[in-house]
Amino acid sequence: MNLSNLSVLLVMLSFLMNVNFCLAGDDFRRSLSFGPQLGLYSFYGLSSTDPKNIWVVGGFGTIAHSSDGGRVWNEQKSGVKTELYDITFVDNNTGWTVGRHGVVLKTIDAGNTWIRQETEKKAALFGVCFVNSRVGWSVGEQNTILYTDNGGESWVGQSETMDRILKHLFFVDEKYGWVVGEFGVILHTNDGGKSWVEQLNPLGEHTLFGVFFKDRQKGWAVGMDGCILHTQDGGVSWTTLASPLTEHLFGIQIIGDNGWAAGIKGRLCISKDSGLTWTKSTCGTGVNVWLRRVHFIDEKTGFLCGANGSIRYTQDGIKWKEPEKLILNR
Question: Domain ranges in the chain?
């Protein structure tokens, strides 16, 4: 081989190496494995409509969707760069997410496009709940309670006068709902939010981060120092349940005889008697960050999300799995 041919060959090899490097770099930009490299992606809210479709929201306006039960996730374009704190879907197409600066986004195509909705307040919104495609509420800073009966085309305030941060809410239907938050506040409405009554927290000013009701009577709330509250009369009276943890709990859900509560340091509490007694559990090794939300579709299929890109899913209600990858859309 003469020097001329050798030079051509070297140039071609160099070109191919550069192409492969660029492709590898492009693949890296577009697909990230779950683990330390997702440390900047903290997820605050989660919603699922069936065992296959799940959405999470978090920092930097991140929205991600899985259509295969949690194995692979695809980033969706939110159009915002601020934190998103909660998300809810009423079917596989229609959902809302809320966040900092009063951001409310809606989708009617499973998250392929998100449209911003305007509200009268610009306070951070930490919780959102819809009972159907028309009626929903959102809560947040400055004692903000917002209500819509037209799918979010317009929102009106239903706020109390005291200035507290409201962390989470749950409605079982268009009339009955509960809100929890800072300083142990528990608010209840039986008329769709036209009026709110404060219920007595037996722990006083222990801040509450999550609330869940099975029906109009049976409910639970979780919060600081691992506290778990329970009511069997719609909140007329709340009692304190024995908790196996002393760390904060953020989210709770009960389905049938099974219950789950998620908190900091990757800790879980589980119940096998419809939320009356609780034992300590985990979602596997390598998770030592706060877990913000837990959501189960049935007694075996569930999902978790939290700090540092943490997402876990289970298909048997026992073993938690880590997703394979997050495909970016940027």
Answer: 34-327
Does the reported pTM lie above 0.85? Answer: yes
User: What CATH architecture applies to the domain 34-327?
Assistant: 7 Propeller (2.130)
Chain position carrying tokens 């699922």? 48
Q: How far apart are CA 75 and CA 57, in angstroms?
A: 10
User: Model confidence over 36-69: pLDDT tens digits?
Assistant: 667 678 999 999 999 999 999 999 999 999 999 9
Q: How far apart are CA 79 and CA 93, in angstroms?
A: 18
- DSSP notation for 179-212: EEEGGG-EEEESSTTSS-EEPPPTTTT--EEEEE
Query: What whole-number distance in Å separates Cα of residue 32 and Cα of residue 30?
Result: 7
Convert the pLDDT of each residue in 152-178 to its tens digit: 999 999 976 678 999 999 999 999 999
DSSP label at 242? P
The owner of tokens 């209500």 is 147
